[in-house]
Amino acid sequence: MKIKKVVSVIVYVLVMQAVICFAAQEGQATAGKVDLKLRLKAGESHEMKMTQNQNIAQTMNGQEQKIKQTQEMIMGFDCLSVDANGNMDVETTYKAMKIAMDGPMGHMEFDSANPKPVDPNRPDEKMLAAMFSAIAGSKFQMKMTPTGKTLEIRGINEMVAKMREKIKEGMGSSPEMQGLDKFFDKMFDEKQVKEMTGDMLGAFPAEPVAIGDTWYDTISMNFIMPIDVDTTYMLKQRKDGIAYIDAVAKMDMGDSSKAIEIDPNNKLSMQISGTMNTTSEVDEKTGLTRKSNIAMNFSGVMRMEVNQQMPEGMTMPMTIVGNAVVELIK
Predict the structure, then answer these.
(1) Mean pLDDT over residues 78-98, rounded?
(2) Does residue 93 or residue 60 have the better pLDDT?
(3) Is 66 exposed, middle or buried (0-12, 13-18, 19+ CB in 10 A)?
């Protein structure tokens, strides 16, 4: 009898454990999911800082050239209004820009917060300073959905007009200015900016997700050159209101059969591909990314077409390895 009683107790305990476990799993099926969305409030202001390091190696005429580049950019996001569907009108401002570059031409640097005189004998330094000083302080407006998509862009033409004026003040009507004009036409075309700002503050799934769930995002744009990006996201962990998200992006840039249309006298084509691996900490309440760490690895070729300075043309294999950190600083 004692044995039967012990067995019955064991069975009872096992059944209760199963019921408790089942109930817990049922609770996790709903409570364990999180609805990741961007939820800015009208009147809120935020700033994000991106620090990026790149090591570029390219081979020209059998000689390897190395370029080391460090960039720092602070962008401001002011939420102007939110409609009934949660779509947000956001004014985006390039608050500050800093860049340092070491390569075959020597050292160059620019800091919009502390600009220094440029070497008049260095047209490349002059161009860099003119371009980045024009971008710093520029702003435009965009309407974003809660999933991070950009619906529309406003104020680009006005922004570009002001930037051109600043560049002309620094460079006048030099030949380099003509190249910059075409670069800005491509870089700040309204359609290109809309594509480029897609997912700027995050790419979120349409439905709530649980730990281990994945979602996908695909971007195709023609930002100076065609760019295709396929990204897979996974919710890895949740803790204290923070969602930890891993992402792997496969990127293809350029087209070796088509020249990049910037300078008609120096046509070049490019074909580069590679990956970016990202780990991010996202505030579950607001959808704002508190911090992201990004590792990038690309390789490919750049081809210079035949011209007066280069009668035989040139093919340059290249690799780009780097990392970036994006932080919410306000």
Answers:
(1) 93
(2) 93
(3) exposed
Alpha helices by DSSP H, listed for the chain, are: 2-31, 123-135, 156-171, 175-187, 190-197
Q: Are residues 8 and 130 in the same domain?
A: no
The pLDDT value given to residue 325: 94
Q: Taking the model in full, what pTM does it have?
A: 0.78
* Domain encompassing residue 23: 1-31
Cα distance between residue 258 and residue 246, in whole Å: 34
Judge if 172 and 310 occupy the same domain.
yes
- Residue 196, Ramachandran bin (φ over 0: left; ψ between -120 and 50: alpha; else beta): alpha
Residues 75 and 213 in one domain: yes
Our CA angle for 235, 240, 243, nearest 5°, is 20
Q: For position 83, which CATH number holds?
A: 2.30.230
Are the CB atoms for 162 and 140 separated by under 8 Å? no
Q: Please report, as a single letter, which amino acid is at residue 53.
A: N
Of 275, 321, 272, 276, give the one whose Cα is nearest residue 299: 272
**Whether residues 9 and 148 fall in one domain:** no
Which of 127, 126, 39, 124 shows the shortest CA–CA distance to 86?
39
Q: Is 209 helix (H, G, I), strand (E, B) or coil?
A: strand
Lowest-pLDDT choice from 7-11, 78-82, 181-185, 293-297: 7-11
Are 133 and 253 contained in the same domain?
yes
Domains identified in the chain, total number? 2
